[in-house]
Specification:
About 20% of the residues are buried. This protein has eight helices and no strands. It folds into two domains: about 60 residues, no CATH class; about 60 residues, 5' to 3' exonuclease, C-terminal subdomain (DNA polymerase, domain 1, Orthogonal Bundle), CATH 1.10.150.
């Protein structure tokens, strides 16, 4: 079991190292920094923790998370931070649509009125 954990940790280090190389290439070429680039830079600068880096990378690389973010940012009162929290809390847009009021208000940044707005807006689509 310990060996499996060590392999998983090594894999995570390799992925992060690859992302750092991609980030450096973007910086060298003068491209606009992507969400991945911004997350890596924030981690390097000490602004975010390793856990926050992992969350941001997960969001940036998951197409379903992007669907959730786009759908929820169209709802009044939900901005990028709250849409990211929703994308981390729910695995799919369909799961979010099925969420009840309590499940929604358990997400950071979602109060009762915003939960109502999410339920109303997403069930209409």
């Amino acid at each position: 079991m310990n060996m499996l954990l060590e392999l998983l940790e090594a894999g995570a280090v390799i992925v992060v190292a690859g992302l750092v190389l991609v980030s450096a290439a973007h910086e060298y070429l003068g491209d606009e920094p992507s969400d991945v680039d911004q997350a890596i830079q924030a981690y390097r600068d000490g602004y975010i923790s390793e856990t926050e880096l992992e969350d941001r990378l997960e969001l940036a690389m998951d197409p379903e998370a992007e669907r959730i973010r786009v759908a929820t940012e169209a709802i009044n009162g939900i901005g990028p931070a709250t849409s990211a929290d929703l994308a981390l809390a729910f695995d799919s847009l369909e799961e979010l649509r099925r969420a009840d009021h309590d499940e929604l208000t358990d997400v950071h940044g979602i109060g009762p009125s915003t939960a109502d707005a999410v339920n109303q807006n997403l069930t209409q689509r």
